[in-house]
Amino acid sequence: MGNDEPGGGEGESENARWCIDEDAKRRATDEQEIERLVRAFYVKVRSDAVLGPIFDGVIGEDWEPHLKKMFDFWSSVMLTTGRYKGQPMRAHLKLKEVSPSHFDRWLTLFRETADEICAPEVADLFTEKAARIAESLQLGMFFEPALHDPERQRR
Ligand code: HEM
Asked: Which SUPFAM superfamilies did the record assign (predicted)?
């Protein structure tokens, strides 16, 4: 068996194999692609009948500071540069009019943009990350422990 086969070594754990795969995919994007993706995504968001007004209401006319923050965010997520220093949960908890269906729309537009800008496996990676982060934001924003309390459901 050739030694250069990734993950092919005897006794190699599933976890190590996953890491090699993940690193290879991570290098498949770069800062330029992130910037193109973020800009194209927020063009769609701004012209979306449902999401547009929510963002415009908070961000106003000058989108550059938000876009720069999002370049840093995605650079941290995809290239582990650590450039983003913000608190996404806190920013989203302030958005009282946002509901889970808005997240579905957000993810649809994000998937659409990633498919237009990136190679298929890179688009998948961006979308998987976005979906996981969306899930955790939604847990913070909408999860009501009382609804899932078995004591209450028996009553
Ligand atoms: C319904 C879906 C979403 C809506 C309506 C939404 C809306 C917004 C708005 C209006 C801001 C600006 C907040 C401010 O400047 O005070 C913001 C910031 C941000 N959003 Fe979202 N967002 C959504 C989903 C997501 C998802 C899924 C992600 C990540 C994958 C994300 C990542 C961020 C980040 C990193 C910031 C910057 C926070 C900061 O440091 O100030 N958002 N979002």
From this structure: Globin-like
